[in-house]
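Why does residue order matter? Because the sequence determines the fold. Keep that principle in mind as you read this record.
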Amino acid sequence: MTTDAVPTLRVNDAAAAAVWYRRLGFERVFDHRFESELPAYVGLRREGAQIHLSEHTGDAQPNGLVHIWVDDVDEVAAEFGVAVDDQPWARALQLVDPDGNRLRVAQAANRASADDVLGDGSTAQLIELERAMWTDATRGDPAWMGEHLTDTFTEFGNRSSLWVRHRGRWLLEFHQGTPAPG
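Structure:
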């Protein structure tokens, strides 16, 4: 079982790099040298995330890339004076450490509900319509079905539905309703 994966980044001066990474909230948890004159290997941690910095030339290629997920990307942007780029999957920015390693720092995008997008109580309407589809009385009522299905309505297995808004009304475009065993 995998319990953790830790990226190692090549740096020229691990002590100086650790100071730079502290701006991202990483704390130094260990320093290691086989001998005082040999290259350093430093471990950093920010909450559950770890990064190792190595002065050893064989440990990692220069100009590495690490993705870091945070709760507040705006805080990081303010610390480094950079802009946040809004993407469909995240709000993100890119930093380059003093040794040329790239860090893509991101905050997951908030998933909008139907109410957020349409602003009209659609979530409650859709839940009510979906529940109505589960009852024998509604499914057996040709008038209700005719009023709530699109002309191209399709249905197959399991339980999922696709409702579309057409002329201000919710119409069922697709439904999947496969009975589960037991």
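The chain has two domains: 8-108, 114-176.
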